[in-house]
Amino acid sequence: MKKTLLAAALLAGFATAGVAQAETSVTLYGILDTGYGYQNFKYDRNGADLTAKSSGLRDGTFNGSRWGLKGAEDLGDGLRAIFQLEASVNLGSQAGNGQRGFARQSFVGLSSDSWGTFTMGRQYSAGTETFQGPNGVNLGDADKVFGSVGLGEGTRVENSFKYVTPDLSGFKAIVLYGTGDDGGTWVNRDGNTSTSYGDRGSRVSVGALYANGPIGVGASYDRQSVTGQDAMTSWQLSASYDFEVVKLALAYGQDRHGKLGWNGNAGSYIGGLSEANSKALQTGTDPASYNDFKSNNYHVGLSAPIGGGTLYAGWNYSTSNLDDSVADGGWGDAADNISAYQLNYVYPLSKRTSLYTYASYMKNVGYVKDLTGTEAGVGINHKF
After folding, report:
1. Which residues fall within 8 angstroms of residue 94, CB to CB, at 6 or more apart?
2. What pLDDT, in 10s, does the model give residues 282-317?
3. Within its chain, how far is the Cα of 54 from the centroid?
4. How does DSSP classify residue 257?
5. What are the CA-CA distances from residue 155 to residues 127, 254, 256, 314 (Å)?
6. Which domain holds residue 276?
7. Is residue 239 helix, strand or coil?
8. Is 276 within a domain?
């Protein structure tokens, strides 16, 4: 009797699911990426001889590990309601995005093949979505020299409205606006103490991309209002061409008044390397603290099919004016230009599972003169 009731309940559940499926579709997806990695940072300047080494399990090398839900409901006449919720996963420690919920992406909106897509929530900037590959990973990633093109905190815009045009023979345009947040002040019940919260200014991000056959071209401009200083701006132009034997990517961009959404800050790699030894680190490794900051950024990437997999070679370079005098807000002779090189190889075991290996070298990490970084690793990437 119990088995009969259980079977009936299961059948009823499947029937209900079938009805729901006819109205809307929901997809569970994710990426699990982990392996072994080694990093060695060395600072050798003005009598200092410091190193910072680490090795072990590395998570999210080629793709940040994640899981998510995305869905669509057909509203008729080509109009769909859509949503996406995406959370970080760390296979080694389960500590992704500061333990927040769907911190990678979370939005809802409407989409039409004729009119485009409008969404609201926490979403990627235009710079992230228009940058053309091939590209490297970790120290070899272009986001270590470019602002606003990586996948860091500054390139996911909270409280944002985003519109993407329909695909017009390979062309798309993107417009995003993130509302400012003046923070506000909470006054305690005793009326004598208060807590103030920081201001996050408004964000504007626009871009366009063209992808048709072997050609890919992307461009973007981002502007972030900042309390107490000029707005940070970042623009980039990138292009790629697939010659079949080899695919080439080139990119150039500029940052002003800071590096918006930057993932290359030296302090993010070596928290306490030389607080008392590097003038640059004492002054602050974040160029956003230098209102007159300027940088010019370059990227060259090559990929080619070899031995059933794909071999990548890349070079990233960035010049800045951080070598201005300390009195003017720069770092003086403690700053220099960033130069990074990488080789990596990805071998697919199936459509969803790949093995990879990589090696990188960077000189003047985070613009800190004579701070070098090397790394190497192997891993597995599985998509579901």
Report:
1. none
2. 444 467 667 889 999 999 999 999 999 999 999 999
3. 23
4. S
5. 8, 16, 16, 22
6. 38-56+124-182+199-383
7. strand
8. yes
